[in-house]
Specification:
By secondary structure, the chain is mainly α. The protein has one domain. It has helices at about 15-40, 45-55, 60-80, 85-90, 90-105, 110-130, 140-150. It is flat and about 50 Å long.
Length: about 150
């Protein structure tokens, strides 16, 4: 008879959480690219002129709409996932933002930046494998539960 494995306290995140996180990463990437493009197009010698130029740029209003979508999505994700799990996963947007800015905005991604991006990906991978309450049936006593989980 084989011994039964010890019970685990971690829970796998449901597909909906992963989809919400993927959407958060994608929309944050688009927001950053649109914001950069609008700021570049509106840039001027004077700060006030740049600010006024931003308000007259159509991409500025697209960016505000995207931020509203991002807010709603984030509220949904956080209703189903631990913040300490979800927020670090969104760091993947740094990777997509760097790639998108290189492709769409002709930014230069240096080897040092690529190394930083690799470190971010390693951190996201490590966090995604940690024990968390995301997807747990009940989060009535998350502080007490985490204390009970520790040795």
């Amino acid at each position: 008879m084989s011994p039964t494995p010890p019970p685990t306290t971690g829970h796998k995140a449901p597909l909906g959480v992963w989809l919400g996180l993927a959407f958060a990463v994608c929309i944050d990437t688009v927001v950053q690219l649109v914001w950069s493009k609008a700021a570049t197009d509106a840039s001027s010698e004077a700060t006030l002129a740049t600010l006024l130029g931003m308000f007259s740029h159509p991409l500025f209003y697209a960016m505000l709409g995207l931020y509203a979508m991002q807010f709603v999505n984030w509220m949904i994700v956080l209703s189903k996932a631990d913040l300490s799990f979800a927020q670090p996963i969104t760091a993947c947007s740094y990777v997509l933002t760097a790639a998108g800015s290189a492709y769409f905005l002709a930014d230069r991604v240096t080897p040092l930046r690529m190394a930083g991006i690799a470190l971010i990906l390693i951190g996201v991978w490590l966090i995604s494998g940690t024990t968390h309450h995301t997807g747990a049936p009940s989060m009535v006593h998350p502080v007490t539960d985490s204390l009970e989980d520790s040795p």
